[in-house]
Fold these 2 entries.
Entry 1:
Amino acid sequence: MRKASQKKKLYSIYLKLFASFGPQHWWPAKTPFEVMVGAILTQNTNWANVEKAIAQLKQHKALAPKRIYHLSTSKLARLIKSAGYYNIKTKRLKAFLKFLFDHYRGEPNRMSRVPGQKLRSQFLSINGIGPETADSILLYALQKPLFVIDAYTKRIMARHGFIAEDCSYKDVQNLFMQNLKKEVKLFNEYHALLVRLGKEFCLKKNPKCRICPLK
DNA sequence: GACCAGGCACATC
DNA sequence: GATGTGCATGGT
C-alpha cells in the first residue's frame, strides 16, 4: 500500500468509526491511578471481569497508591481475583507500585512532566509491564501521544491488509504513529473505537470472521 | 465442555 | 529471533 493512500485510509476509517459509534469516553476510569491499575488487570482479560476487581478494590477503599502498596499479597490477590491470573497480577501491581514510590513518591501526577519516551522505557523495565500496558498508561492516564496496539487493533488491521498477521507490536504502532498527527485526543478515540469495532464485529480469533462495517 | 477475553515473562531451540 | 507455554476467572 502506498504511503499517501495509507494515510488517507487510516483517517477515513477513523471518521467512519466515529460516525457509527460516536465518542467512546476512554479510559473508563475516574483517576489516572485507576487507569494504571486497570491497565495491568486487563491483560488478556475480559473488561467485565476487571470491573468487578476494581469494584472490590473501591469497596475496600484500596484503590489508592499507598493502600495497594501496603496491602498484603494475599489480601490484594483476594480482591482482584475476578480479573483472573490473580497471583501474577498481584506481583505486577506490587512491582508497579514499588516503581511509583521509588521514583515518583507514590504520586502519579509527578510523572506528567516527564517526556513520554523516557517514561515508556522506565515502564518497560518493570516486570509485568509490556508495550501495551505501558502505552495504555502513557496515553490514557498521562496524556502522552502513544498509539496503543492491542489484539483487536492488530487483528483488524491485518484483516484489512494494512499489515501482516505476524508483524510486531512496533510495526503496527508505526503504522499509526507515522501516518497520523500525534494528538492525544485522536489516538485515544481511535484506539477505543477499534476496540469497540473488535468487540462488536470481529469478536473471535477465528480468521474466517471478516465482517467489515468499514467498507 | 469449548472457546474467548483490551498480555507478559520465561524456557527452549 | 521465533515459537511454545503457564498464568485463571467468568461469560457465551
Note: The first helix of chain A runs from residue 3 to 21.
Entry 2:
Amino acid sequence: MNNLDKNFGDLNKQQIDAVKKTSGSLLILAGAGSGKTRVLILKIYYFLISKLALPNQILAVTFTNKAANELKTRVSNMTGKIIDSWWVGTFHSISARILRKHSELVGLKNNFVIIDKDDQIKLIKSICESEKISLEDKNAKYYLKCIDRFKNDYISEEEVFEKAKIKDERDLAKIFSIYQNELIRLNCCDFGDLIIHCLSIFKKNNKVVKQLQNQFKYILVDEYQDINPSQQEWLKYLYSHHKNICCVGDDDQSIYSWRGAEIKNILNFEKDFENPSIMFLEQNYRSTKRIINCASHLINFNKNRYNKKIWSQNSEGSKIEIRGFWETKEEAISISSKIEELKTSNTPLNEIAILMRVAAHTRSFEERFLNIGLPYRIIGGIKFYERKEIKDVIAYLRIANNHNDDLALERIINVPKRGIGKLTLKKINLISRNKKISLFEGCKIYLQSDEGGKAKIEINNLISKIHKWNKVINKIDHIDLCELILEDSGYMELLINESKLKDHIESYDRLDNVNEFMNGLKEFENLEGFLEHVSLVAENDNIYKNEKISLMTMHSAKGLEFKYVFLIGWEEGLFPSKRSIEEKGQSGLEEERRLAYVALTRAKEKVFISFVNQNRYSYASHDFNSPSRFINELPKEDLEIFNSEIFENDEYSFNISQLEEANTAEISPGKKRLIENYNKINEQNLAHDRDISAINQSSFNEGDRIFHKKFGYGRILEIENITALINFDKSGTKMVYLKYLFRE
DNA sequence: TTTGACGACATTTTT
DNA sequence: TGTCGTCAAA
C-alpha cells in the first residue's frame, strides 16, 4: 500500500475519492485538464494492486485508440508489467473482439471484413441501382447518414419499416434492410454493426452474455459524454451482473452529436445504472488562470449543462491575443513569424498547435511552413488507410483471402487498367445478382458466355492469379504474399511507372506509402491481425516522435494539450458553423460553443485567436466575414486585441534579417533554401510592389467602373489605402484589394 | 474502353 | 479549391 500512497501523493481530495470508490455506479464529471485520465489510470492500478480484480476482469472502454493506448502504457509502466490479456480498447475494437469470437451467431464468418465509408457508399449505390431508386434528390451519402443514425440510436430495420409512411421513408427502409442483408452476404460489417451485432448476440445468446457479465467485474468508461444510445445499451448488458461501473466525462466537451452522442445521453447514467453517485473534478492543472477564466466565461453562455465550475491555481498567465487579417495568407504569415519567435525563445515545436474548425484549412499554413522550413505535422487529415493506394493493396489482400469479397474485387478488377471497363463489370454484376452468386463466381460464368474478347482474357488471367494467391496464402508468410501479389498483379509496376512521370512527387509518395504499409505488415503475426488493425486504427502511433508543429481540427485536439495554441478561422459562419446552426438551431450553437471551450482549454500557457475578413475560399465568398461571436463572449479583461498588423506594417514578406539573427545552427534545410532563393523572392516582391504602385499611380477613383476576376463587374464605392469597397453587379458589396482590380 | 476536357458541385467535425 | 461525374472523341 505504500507504493499506492506514493502514487496518490499529489492527488487532490476529490481525485482520491474518485479512485477509491470502487463499487456501484459512479459518474465523474471532470472538467478539462482536471486529471481525469490520471484518475482512470489510478483506478485500474488500484483494482490490480489491491487485488480487487485480475487484469482481464477490468473492462476499460474509450472512444479513441490514442486514449486506449495511453491507458495501457501508463498502467503497464506503473505496474511494471505488460498485460496483454486485458480489455482496454475502444468500443469498436472491443466489440470486434467479441464479435470475432461469436460471429456465427449473427451470420458472419469470423474472418469478416470491417468496411469503411467508401465501401458503404459503393454498396448503397449499387443497391439503389438494382432497386431502381433514384439518387437524384437524395444521394447515397444521405442514405448512409440515415443508416448510421439508425445504428447509433439503436433503431432496428423493423422499426424503420413500421414508421415508414411516405415513399421516401419506405425507400430508406428498403435500402437499410437490403444493405444489412448484403453486408451479411458479403461477410462484412460497418462500424455501427460492430456494436449492433454485439447487442444482438447479447440479446440472443444467454450463455455468451452471462460469461462476459461474470468476467467484467469493473467497467470503466472514458469520455462518457460521447456515448450514443447503442453504446449505452451495450454497457448496460455488460454491467448488469457485477454492477460496478465508473464513467468519466465532461458534458462541456460533448462535441460529437452528429455521431449520436447527444448531450442528454449523459443523463441516462442516472436512469440506467443503479444508485448512481456523481462526483465533480473541477480543479484544472493544465492552464493559466486567464485561460480558464476565458473558457468558463464562454461556456457559461450555454444553458444546457451541468453547473460545473472549473478553476485553476496556476499563475495568471498572459492575455489571449486576438488578431484580424484580410487574407488567410496574412494569417499564416503572422502566425508563422510568431512561431519563429517562440522557437528562438526555446519553445519546442511539439508544444505548439494550430487548431481549426475545418480540416481543409491547413492549406495556407502548410504552404507557409514549407516555404520557410518550419516542420509541421497534420493530425487526422487523410488517414493512412484511407489513401487510395493503401486501399487498393488491402483490396488485393482481401480478395486473395476471400474470393467472395465482392467489394474488394470490384475495387481492383481494373486497377491497374486491364481493359475491364464499366460495361463489362455491369454485365458481370447482372449475372451475379441474377444467380445470387458472388462477383468472383459471376466472372467465371461470364467467361463461358459468347460475348467480349479482350476483356475475357484479362478476367481469366486475373481469376487464375487470385486462385494462385489463395493457394499459397497458408504456405508463405503474409509479407511475402503481399510482395507476390503486388508484383503479380502489376500494381507495383503501375506505381513505379507513375512515379516516373513528370509530376512524380505525389506518386513517389504513393510508392512510399505502400512500402510503409509493407513495413507495418511486419509487425503483425498474420494477415487478419493486420487487416483488423488497419480498419480500426486510424493513426499511426509514431507521429509524435519528432519536433513539429501540430495542425489539426479542434475535434481531434480533444484530450491533447500544448503550451501555445493558435485558434484560427474564428469567423462568424465558419465558427460557429452556419451549417450546424441551420441544422440544429440553439443546440447546434451550443455544441459549437463547447467546441470553442475544448479548443481554449487545450492551451497551457497562451492562446492566440485570429480571424480573416476576406473569404477563405472563393466558394465561401458569400459575404464579408466578421469575427466570430465567440470572441465577443470572452471576458474583455483577459484579451489583448490587435488590429490587423498587416496594415500597420506593409512588409508582408518574410523578413530575412530575422532569419540571420537566428542561430545559424538551427537553420533547417527549408530555410537554407529560402535564404538561397532570397534574391529571387525579393525580386518577385519588388515586381509585386511595382505592380501595386503602378496601380496606385493609375489610381482608381470612387465611382469608377471596374472588373474583378472573381466577382466580375462593379463600381467603386470607397477607396481606403490599398483596398476598395466595391458594389459588384452580381455579387453584392465587398471589400477587395486594389491590386486585383482592372479597368472596365 | 480509355482518356481528356469541361462543368457542376460541395465543403464540419470521425470510431 | 479540388474532386467528381458526364460527355465526346480517340
Note: The first strand of chain A starts at residue 25 and ends at 30.
